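User: Here's a chain of 197 residues. Predict its fold as tokens.
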Amino acid sequence: MLVSAALLAAAVITAVVWYYPWLPDPAHANRRELIRWLVTRNLEQVSEATREVLAQRLEEEFSGDIDWDATARELTDGQRQLLRENVGRLVGPWIRSKARLYASLSEVERTAYLDQLIDTLKQWRGLDSLAPVSGTSSNAEPGLLAAAMEQLNALADHADPAEQEQTRAFVTALQTRWVAREFMRHFEGAARQLFSG
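Assistant: Prediction complete.
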């Protein structure tokens, strides 16, 4: 009977490892392992601290050039759907950690910090190629990055008053800087055309 129980336990452990492959500590995971976190695990079931570490590591690993299309080809429809849900679950911890860091910076450092963050977010536009393929364009969901960005203003409502103020101030500063950069880019382009013609 003990042998049967031991064999059953070994079979269960093997099945769990097979169906739920081991995921490394996100603090030390490489790019491929981070993607595995996003497409095999419901991040609603992990701690806020783990989600914050995941968000930070994703920012670090995916801030350079990425072949989003190659990554997309490796994912099933189910993995893409879980990825969409998990990206939304990371926005809150990520923004709150960014807001804390932004609040600790001097006024001089804040603009450079926002510029770096905006550059990273622009790089992440390729995330949309990882989104689930919609049946028709009429019922298409917004892209992954667009859906995540829609949550920015709602995030502050789920925090204590001090954190709400900090998060709102950061989100406002980020949006304002983004608009200012876009305006300057268009202004400089128009000025070049005007004076070159």
